[in-house]
Amino acid sequence: MTNSSPLTQDELKALVGQAALQYVVPGGIVGVGTGSTVNKFIDALAGMKNEIRGAVSSSVASTERLKALGIAVFDANEVESLAVYIDGADEIDGQGYMVKGGGAALTREKIVAALASRFVCIVDESKLVPSLGRFPLPVEVIPMAVQHITRRFAALGGAAQLRLKDGQPLVTDNGQQILDVTGLSIKDPLAFESNVNQWPGVVTVGVFAHQKAAVCLVGTAQGVVKTFTY
């Protein structure tokens, strides 16, 4: 018997959010990312909140959602390591390399990912790409460096645009700004991430190659597919 109506993107996100629970270690602290797909995971996590110590969150928004559901939130400085970090991606390739930062939380996401032994990425199939660069690359920057970094991306063939909110430059949870860069084709994500992170004024580039995903759970019309494991 087949389902005549395809699942909506929202339903696909709920599927992978639920599937990610299998990677949560009972009795431990789980790293929790940011975004609409992660919100589905947080909602599912509430069902096992009594089985975990709590979470380390990558954004104010996720922290508020976790606390509202009765899940304890620890500061990243309070934990030495995490067994797993669960987060979405704006795009992910077949090697587990990602572009993240559409929700402006890329710096904190990268910090929490660095604490974790394993990154479990949860996405719907629209986020799968053969190579990175389709989604505008978010880069968190110190405001005084915006024009300098814009020129550096232009030299690479990229067009950087300052992200706005309500007509004003968006301010991140860290008090910085975001450049969204289009026109890039990122063939070597590891080298690209290392290079851009060295530019003065860059806080974090949204390429997650050094903190790539070990597992990717993809919501598809056929259900949840695990695409790779390292």
TrEMBL record:
<dbReference type="GO" id="GO:0005829">
    <property type="term" value="C:cytosol"/>
</dbReference>
<dbReference type="GO" id="GO:0006014">
    <property type="term" value="P:D-ribose metabolic process"/>
</dbReference>
<feature type="binding site">
    <location>
        <begin position="34"/>
        <end position="37"/>
    </location>
    <ligand>
        <name>substrate</name>
    </ligand>
</feature>
<dbReference type="Pfam" id="PF06026">
    <property type="entry name" value="Rib_5-P_isom_A"/>
</dbReference>
<dbReference type="InterPro" id="IPR037171">
    <property type="entry name" value="NagB/RpiA_transferase-like"/>
</dbReference>
<protein>
    <recommendedName>
        <fullName>Ribose-5-phosphate isomerase A</fullName>
        <ecNumber>5.3.1.6</ecNumber>
    </recommendedName>
</protein>
<comment type="pathway">
    <text>Carbohydrate degradation; pentose phosphate pathway; D-ribose 5-phosphate from D-ribulose 5-phosphate (non-oxidative stage): step 1/1.</text>
</comment>
<comment type="similarity">
    <text>Belongs to the ribose 5-phosphate isomerase family.</text>
</comment>
<dbReference type="InterPro" id="IPR020672">
    <property type="entry name" value="Ribose5P_isomerase_typA_subgr"/>
</dbReference>
<feature type="binding site">
    <location>
        <begin position="100"/>
        <end position="103"/>
    </location>
    <ligand>
        <name>substrate</name>
    </ligand>
</feature>
<keyword id="KW-0413">Isomerase</keyword>
<dbReference type="InterPro" id="IPR004788">
    <property type="entry name" value="Ribose5P_isomerase_type_A"/>
</dbReference>
<feature type="binding site">
    <location>
        <position position="127"/>
    </location>
    <ligand>
        <name>substrate</name>
    </ligand>
</feature>
<dbReference type="GO" id="GO:0009052">
    <property type="term" value="P:pentose-phosphate shunt, non-oxidative branch"/>
</dbReference>
<comment type="function">
    <text>Catalyzes the reversible conversion of ribose-5-phosphate to ribulose 5-phosphate.</text>
</comment>
<feature type="binding site">
    <location>
        <begin position="87"/>
        <end position="90"/>
    </location>
    <ligand>
        <name>substrate</name>
    </ligand>
</feature>
<feature type="active site" description="Proton acceptor">
    <location>
        <position position="109"/>
    </location>
</feature>
<comment type="subunit">
    <text>Homodimer.</text>
</comment>
<dbReference type="GO" id="GO:0004751">
    <property type="term" value="F:ribose-5-phosphate isomerase activity"/>
</dbReference>
